[in-house]
């Protein structure tokens, strides 16, 4: 990427030059989920969404980070447990990496949550991977 493009691209999701050799895309045998986040976001996009638990139909309103650089939908482990979402164990754990290429402190993804999500009249059933997101409760990436 030319330096002019990198410095003038207001919509870039990830500045790969900043990561250097920390990224390793050569190992394609492992199942991996990446929580890519903009290194220095110009602004963050937060959406107020509703989540409905499938078993109890209880609704939870939450602000979710919209991040087109994330490779899936993610829910924080602590938030999942506090709100009582029913977690489904995965057949195989998924390695999860942070934006800087390091392994997530919470370890591999071992569970998912299935739910209905509501946003401005739109309803969609989806599954979200459960992992350690620290301050963020939900990340809506591009699965």
CATH class: Mainly Beta
Number of domains: 1
Largest sheet, described in full? 6 strands, mixed, barrel
Rounded Rg: 16 Å
* CATH homologous superfamily classification: Acid Proteases
Described by the principal axes of the CA atoms, the overall outline is globular
Strand order in space, largest sheet: 2-3-8-4-7-6
Tell me the β content.
Answer: 35-45%
What percent of residues adopt helix (DSSP H or I)? 10-25%
Would you identify the CATH architecture?
A: Beta Barrel
CATH topology: Cathepsin D, subunit A, domain 1
- Give the total of beta strands: 8
The poorly predicted ranges are: 1-29
Structural class: mainly beta
Order of helices and strands: HHEEEEHEEEE
Tally of helical runs = 3
**Average of the residue pLDDT scores:** 78
Q: Please report the distance between the alpha carbons of the first and last residues.
A: 25 Å
Fold and architecture overview:
12% of the residues lie in helices and 43% in strands. It is mostly beta strands and 143 residues long. The chain has one domain: Acid Proteases (Cathepsin D, subunit A, domain 1, Beta Barrel).
In brief, what are we looking at here?
The protein is mainly β and 143 residues long. Helix content is 12%, strand content 43%. The protein has three helices and eight strands.
């Amino acid at each position: 990427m030319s330096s002019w493009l990198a410095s003038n691209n207001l919509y870039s999701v990830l500045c790969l030059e900043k990561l250097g050799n920390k990224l390793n895309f050569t190992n394609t045998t492992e199942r991996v989920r990446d929580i890519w986040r903009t290194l220095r976001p110009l602004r963050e996009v937060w959406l107020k969404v509703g989540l409905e638990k499938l078993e109890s139909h209880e609704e939870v309103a939450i602000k979710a980070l919209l991040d087109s650089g994330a490779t899936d939908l993610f829910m924080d482990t602590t938030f999942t447990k506090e709100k009582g979402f029913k977690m489904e164990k995965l057949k195989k754990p998924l390695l999860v990496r942070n934006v800087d290429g390091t392994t997530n402190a919470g370890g591999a993804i071992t569970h998912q949550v299935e739910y209905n999500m509501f946003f401005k009249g739109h309803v969609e059933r989806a599954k979200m991977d459960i992992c350690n997101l620290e301050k963020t409760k939900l990340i809506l990436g591009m699965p």
